[in-house]
Each structure stands twice: as structure tokens, then as C-alpha cells.
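Hello,

Our lab assistant flagged a job as stuck in the queue for most of the afternoon. It eventually completed. Since we weren't sure the result was trustworthy after the delay, we are filing this so someone can double-check. Below is the sequence as submitted and the structure that was eventually returned. Let us know if re-running is recommended.
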Amino acid sequence: MSAGDPIFKSVFGKDWDKLPPVMKKHYAVRSNSSDRVEVKGKLDIKISPMVSLMARISGMLLAYSGKDIPVTVAFRSDEQASPSRHNASFYFDRTFHFPDHGDIIFRSRMEQIQDNILVEFIRFGIGWKLAYEWDGEKVILHHKGYVWRLFGKLLPLPLSFVMGKGHAEETPLSDDEFSMWTHAKHSLFGPTFGYAGTFKVTDVKCPK
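-- returned structure --
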């Protein structure tokens, strides 16, 4: 990936040029830049009591469920990173506008590990390892386990026994809109959390 390319161009590889316009806008942010993409939409959110309790204690996940919750998400990279080192981190700044709880901010950071393999870090070095795929109709995020970064090493973390396995899909609807759903599903206890809804790309700032 060259410095002027979107971070996700190397993630999707040869499939980048096959992506529809809305997905290229969604993933337009370049590394070490002031690029910013904003999307707005509404989500149905289901959080299990166990995950809600974990979220309240750790602050790592969303604690509240709700229907038709307005959400604003800003995607960016780290423009403060040193120009001497390449930074391929992709940040999610999510704001959930709950009518009963006010605005809840949830941030995470995706880091490309190799090819289409990334880790979405939440807090305390804990992250979800996943693989991106464009299957010709939608973007699929495949579960590859949970990890903990300790002293620069990624160690497997057996959170699947508690959280279940994650999965997510994003489907283009128009040149500016896409639907998405994601969940973690436990083999015994069923879904532990899930989001589903639609978003519209409302702002793309990627100056040349």
C-alpha cells in the first residue's frame, strides 16, 4: 500500500476495484492523514444482560439495548502519527444517541495485521481478530478469535467461551447507503450482542 492509498485498499487487495461506490467512500480514509468519513443511520441494538454487565464494569462495549437508535460514526486515521513510520490504523468514533441515556460514545481502532486480517482493538489491548472479504455482493467480516496485545505480542484470548464468535456483514444499497448487521453468538447461549440497521454516507473529507 502506498502512502496515498486508502488503508483498506491493501485489505481488499484485487477486490478493491470491484467495490461499489458506497463501500469505497466508507473505506476511503488514508493512513497518516486528516481524512474523515462520516455516516449516519439507525440501529436496532440487542445487548444480553451478561454483556451489559461487562460493559458497565469495563467500558469496553455498549451496555444498552434499543430500537431505531440514531447513530453517527466517524472514520479516521491517526494524523498525529510520525511521518517516519507508516500507520495503518483505522479508527471508529461511534456516537449512539439514546433517548433515555443520552449520547454514548464508543471508540475502537482497527489495525491491519496481514493482508485481509485485522484486529479491532477496544480497550486494554483486547481486540477481535477478523478477516475481511468482498463476496461480490457484500462485505463479510469473518471471526478469527479474540486477542490480547501484551508487550507487543498478540496472545490468543479465550473470550469465545464467554462472548461467542463474532460476525458482521455490510451490504450496499445505493451509491451512498449500506445496511449492516453484526453479532456475537455463543454456541450454548445464543446471541450475546447484536446491531442491525442502515447507514448513509453524509460527509467525505479526503483532501488530495
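-- support follow-up --
The delay was a queue issue, not a problem with the job. The result is valid. The chain has one domain: 7-205. The chain has four helices and eleven strands.
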